[in-house]
Design goal:
It is a single chain. The protein is an alpha+beta fold. It has one domain: Aminopeptidase (3-Layer(aba) Sandwich). It is about 45% helix and about 20% strand. It is globular, with a radius of gyration of 19 Å.
Length: about 230
């Protein structure tokens, strides 16, 4: 289906019927990529919908297409656009960009003075964020709200995050600061200019993850060997 036929809007209470399929697809997508996202329950998604802090996409005949929601942190000083997910049949149609634009606009409306940030393992999402005015930043520029970081505990990469004292992980951090930001044209141009560098950087992160998991597996193996064969 062409993107022009897909409806993208702020989610309404009646959209709670999609909550389970949304969380199931989030989990399946993370498993397929071999990377982690903070797990969310259907009840949590329903809460975001009821609060008017979510954007949903669907076809004219109500087939679910995509979703994203807002989380506020640090006394509303920071806002995260989280849980972006698109149904497999509608990927690579450009709908993700439309959903991100809508959730970004909703965030700016609800929290006009907040810094908007995101964590991503995907180059495509980095490009979408850059087109909106986000720029790559270090983790130190993100919220220090403990509740935000606690949400990472269900991620497969949580051990890596904590081993780095929350200063780095597999995700790339991006930030939009309404008080001090580049224009979307500038950030989009910068991304295009440096996309190969970002791609190599993210590939390097993935390689380090593989090495980390191998080391962890090896350590676990030695533990059991020493446990059962101490001599």
């Amino acid at each position: 289906m062409e993107q022009s036929n897909i409806i993208v809007r702020v989610a309404l209470p009646q959209d709670i019927i999609y909550a389970t399929i949304i969380t199931d697809e989030m989990a399946a997508s993370a498993q397929a990529r071999g990377t982690g996202i903070a797990k969310r329950s259907p009840e949590y998604i329903a809460q975001k919908i009821n609060e008017g802090k979510a954007v949903i996409a669907h076809t004219p005949d109500n087939v679910w297409v995509g979703f994203c929601y807002i989380e506020a942190w640090g006394h509303d000083e920071f806002v995260a656009n989280s849980g972006l997910i698109v149904a497999p049949a509608f990927r690579k149609t450009g709908i993700a960009k439309s959903i991100k634009k809508n959730i970004f606009d909703l965030s700016r409306k609800k929290y006009p003075h907040a810094k908007i940030f995101g964590l991503t393992t995907g180059l495509a999402v980095m490009k979408i964020n850059s087109d909106l005015g986000y720029e790559p930043v270090t983790y130190s520029e993100l919220t220090d709200d403990e509740n935000f970081w606690a949400g990472c505990k269900s991620c497969v990469n949580y051990d890596i995050l904590m081993s780095k004292d929350r200063k780095n992980c597999m995700c790339t951090a991006m930030l939009y600061d309404p008080a001090d930001h580049y224009t979307p044209e500038e950030t989009a141009t910068d991304f295009k200019k440096n996309s190969k560098i970002y791609e190599r950087f993210m590939r390097l992160k993935q390689n380090r993850l593989i090495q980390y998991l191998k080391k962890k597996k090896s350590t676990r193996l030695h533990f059991f060997i020493n446990l059962f064969f101490p001599f």
